[in-house]
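ARCHIVE CARD
Drawer: 12
Card no.: 0347
Subject: one protein chain, sequence and derived structure
Cross-reference: see card 0346
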Amino acid sequence: MTPVHDAAARGYRSVFRVREFRPVFAAHLLSVLGTVVAEISLTVLVFRTTGSPLMSALTFALGFLPYALGGTLLAGIADRRPARRVLVACDLLCAACAAAMVLPATPVAGLLALRCAMAFVAPLFQGTRAASLADILGPGEAFVLGRSLMRMVAQSAQLIGFGLGGLLLTVLAPRAAIGLTAAGFLGSAVLLRFGTRARPARAAAATRTSPLAGLRAVFAGRRLRLLTLLCWLPPVFFIAPEALLAPYADGIGAGTAALGVMMCALPVGTIAGELWAGSVLSARARSRLVARLAPVALLPLLVFAVRPPVPVVLAALLLAGLAHAYGLGLDQWYVDAVPEALRGRAMTLLSTGLMTFQGVGMALAGLAAEFAPVHTVVTGAAVVGTAVVVLLLAALRSAGRGSAERGPRNETGPATK
């Protein structure tokens, strides 16, 4: 089936009319749920085995630490190898790692090594899948909506995945639950192998470059560098309230129930914002929304300056989440700026940076909170983050005026096709 053209793509239902997208979406759902179940089950298993909170926390952290290394070293594979082959291989590797975790003879060190291996290939899988969406749906509006659906599945996993994982562990031992993870990855591999068609690699296998050369190739153009920074840097500041909600709740005397509700507010707002933008707005309106929403997205967090009560915090986090609706327009800007031959590599590096910079943001927020009150840290993150976004958008306008690489553009970014 041919990709959906922009003129015909209106709303999320049109994306599901593309036959190849349906198995890709189902595979994504299986792999996300499998990853969430693995994270909570493995953390519980290591804690029960060692009795060490440090080892339990390290198990969770190992889902993030190898990410930057894997994304940097493996990014070139996304363009040098056929996408379906890469995706199926990553799923099979993760399934094998999860199956090895199930074995009673696997020691704690082995469990941690297997966790690292799964995290190491995750950015390659995510980048290759994002690039293949542009092949399946076309690089226009349908791609933006498909990518948005993938993001919302991941956000929803934060809301319900850990809760379901906790319930699962009340009836299954941790190793048995990890067995379901292996089955999920196997199911994803089957769906991708038989539900999508084979396509050739974007770049010849002979064009092998070093990871550093790959980074230079992707970021050679000023516009693409700026767009990448606009994707990477705002999460550094958006993550601050989430990273510090526990100490903030304790400081204002809120209980654990209130903390749980506050933790859900930002992802709920994000999902609602994306649904609204994807269902109601046209591609041109979403593109224009970037310049209008991105500079103000962090401003609701300024209410932390007065140490507000729980209802005000909920409202601020929901508003900040809703403002993430600009992400759909930013996705279109980004895919328009990436040369097709580098699309897999660029998407892999983009997802790698997103995960890495969120981790950096968490660490910086925690470090700052050692020296300043939590509400001050969150307020400062909102101020600095807003300034960063405004500067990046101004630089993009300047780059747009100084470049005629892709023809006419709107006032802040690439013209919507």
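Annotation on reverse: DSSP finds 17 helices and no strands in the chain. Residues 6-208 form a domain with the Growth Hormone; Chain: A; fold (CATH 1.20.1250.20).
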